[in-house]
């Protein structure tokens, strides 16, 4: 395929913070691309700078309130469509196992490991989301967002138990260990 737009997301499953989606069309090959989770934070930051200089890209961010209002799947569909409308490519490939029925979109499991454009999108999405969560850690220090990035770690759940939900928590995401036991 002449030019491919790789698409990936970061933040589908956390209890707090945004869903971040990125689409990337590479102009030239970039060495060292792989799934963002397999790279160190320092290496992701270096590659982020290279990708944003040497590729066409588009980043879409959905905050917790929008996720609660629309649902995670609706946000993913909206983000995919926005990326496809914004970035011109011969084909569009989303990491994962579904296209959500979107015409012109293909999906592939582990594309973030195997396909450079999707790896680049993975890096942009993760670095963008991590930067947001580090900032949120400064705004809400009692939650430790800079450490766990909003994922449901033991420390994060304890912080919610102690402090309640912050404005960036996803109220629609249920945490079984925080639910009251039924009296019936």
Automatic annotation (TrEMBL):
CDD domains: RNase_HII_bacteria_HII_like. Pfam families: RNase_HII (PF01351). Transmembrane segments: none annotated. Its EC number is 3.1.26.4. Its cofactor is Mn(2+); Mg(2+). Its main location: cytoplasm. It comes from the Bacteria. Keywords: Cytoplasm, Endonuclease, Hydrolase, Manganese, Metal-binding, Nuclease. It catalyses: Endonucleolytic cleavage to 5'-phosphomonoester. A divalent metal cation binds at residues 8-9, 95. PROSITE patterns: RNASE_H_2 (PS51975). Manganese or magnesium. Binds 1 divalent metal ion per monomer in the absence of substrate. May bind a second metal ion after substrate binding. Residues 2-184 form the RNase H type-2 domain. It is found in: Cytoplasm. HAMAP family: RNase_HII_B (MF_00052_B). Belongs to the RNase HII family. RnhC subfamily. Endonuclease that specifically degrades the RNA of RNA-DNA hybrids. This is Ribonuclease HII.
């Amino acid at each position: 395929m002449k030019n491919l737009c790789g698409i990936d997301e970061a933040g589908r499953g956390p209890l707090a913070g945004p869903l971040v989606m990125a689409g990337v069309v590479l102009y030239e090959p970039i060495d060292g691309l792989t799934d963002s989770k397999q790279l160190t934070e320092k290496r992701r930051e270096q590659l982020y700078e290279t990708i944003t200089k040497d590729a066409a890209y588009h980043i879409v961010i959905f905050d917790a309130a929008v996720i609660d209002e629309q649902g995670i799947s609706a946000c993913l569909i909206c983000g995919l469509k926005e990326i496809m409308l914004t970035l011109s490519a011969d084909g569009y490939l989303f990491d994962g196992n579904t296209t959500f029925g979107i015409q012109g979109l293909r999906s592939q499991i582990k594309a973030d490991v195997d396909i450079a454009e999707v790896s680049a999108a993975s890096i942009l999405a993760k670095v963008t989301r991590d930067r947001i969560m580090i900032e949120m850690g400064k705004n809400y220090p009692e939650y430790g967002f800079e450490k766990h990035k909003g994922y449901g770690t033991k420390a994060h759940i304890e912080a919610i138990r102690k402090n309640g939900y912050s404005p960036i928590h996803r109220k629609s995401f249920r945490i079984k260990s925080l639910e009251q036991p039924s009296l019936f």
